[in-house]
# Entry
Amino acid sequence: MDLFRALGAGARFNKKRFSEDVALFEKPSSTSESGVTADKVDELPHELDFFNNYSNKSKKVEKKGAGEPSDRSNEIDDEELGPFESLEEAAQFRKTHRIKVYGDDIPNPFRSFPDLFNQYGVRPFLKKNLEQAGFKKPTAIQMQSIPIMLHNREVMACAPTGSGKTLAYVLPILHDLKSPEKIGYRALVIAPTRELAQQIYNVFKLMSAGKKFKICMLTKASLATQAHDVQLKQKFDILISTPLRLVHAIQQDQIKLNNVRHLVLDEADKLLELGFLEQMDEIFASCTYTKLQKSLFSATIPSGVEALAKTVMNDPIRIVIGAKNAATDTIKQELVYVGEEEGKLIGIRQLIQKGIKPPVLIFVQSIERAKELFHELVYDGINVDVIHSERTKAQRDNIIDSFKAGRIWVLIATELMARGIDIKGVNLVINYDFPQSVQSYIHRIGRTGRAGRAGEAVTYFTKDDAPYLKSIVNVMRESGCEVPDWMLTVKNPSKNEKKNLKQRPIKRKTINTMSGYDKKKIHHKRQVIEHSKKRKTNDTSETATKE
# Structure
């Protein structure tokens, strides 16, 4: 007797009811009734494809307005919506897209890329490169700032992180330059960090493909090359640099900026802080072209920086996308009270035990603390690395490449990584140390939730951070996040408190899980060693004196 047949007698499998499950096991066809294709079954999310096994199988990753391919076609949406029929219609469009503008004679935004090409006659090579890069629909900042720059007006733009600000100035600059010329630099972009400058350089190269524009990212190597070839300086069209390196080159008479027509400050709030102000003054003074167009872009522009910027700009138009000094609404923000410093390490380990979806970015307030946290997590068996300014250029580049490729799951960073670096797919940002300003907070958490993707940000705070809590609570509320009622009753920090925190971060205990007894033991051992060294030095000097 067949026992299994007897047990299964009368049992029936309802294929109609479980059609989607059946489709997964049937021989794949071009399109199944359930709409499940072989490609979709085989795909892995990009951030989990650590070995790049699926990178060439499918190009169906959706990217919105930030230079990534969308859906099945690389062609730009061909819907031409045409110009606005009235100022009221344009005003309603701005309201829908949360675009606020301030100034006189403000050009209307455009609604689609076909509108941009047809209304402004933007160069054909830009359309081709947009299609090849996968841009389909413009973002809000692009819709408004590009027409302003094409009208040769100066712009001061504040838009959330990951909203496509770089393309918003790259397109109009390349359109205006038309083609390569041998008259020296005609466009200059300043960025506060080398990593951001490299990213801007990549976007210019991408959008200028096929036109042979000479684009220079200022480095020791590029300066050395130009020093050996005097004529080479005249062949470049676009220069991208950090302030200090550029000022040094200007002072050494290695760079001339007299032909610069376009000057862009990316992360303008940082560049117009006291630390960079003297350098920026020298750069402004060196750009002597009479019709110089100045543009400022940032995710945050405090009122003091805005007032300072107006002194060097000519009748600028100010753009604010969404709420000023707010994060993008695609980021779920959370504040977690940990009591003392030790609670942060416990909190991170609990998060990891629950299960985190890499890649994860952790911010601390200093290089020393970055090293300490790294040594704690690396011994927990976590795939972790650390990046800060003490690491070499090659090391930093390798770390960022590995993080992007999924070879590093958790990256510990200082403020170096907080600004402008575009790493697709960061799922979680952890503020291990409370940010020193609202601007720092917005830029830090802006590494996730980019280009329309969802992201999460967790910020730990201790008793020492409590006086500054309300500043972050206000950002969360402006961004549409839920905030506990008790946090809304916390007092706002005073101006002096904000200033002090920005200049001098809170002194914190060392990051480690060592017991108090072990710490005393190590401290005592160090004291004994130091005392022994001093005694040997004294004995040696006494012997030498006797001789």
The two ends are 109 Å apart (CA to CA). DSSP finds 23 helices and 14 strands in the chain.
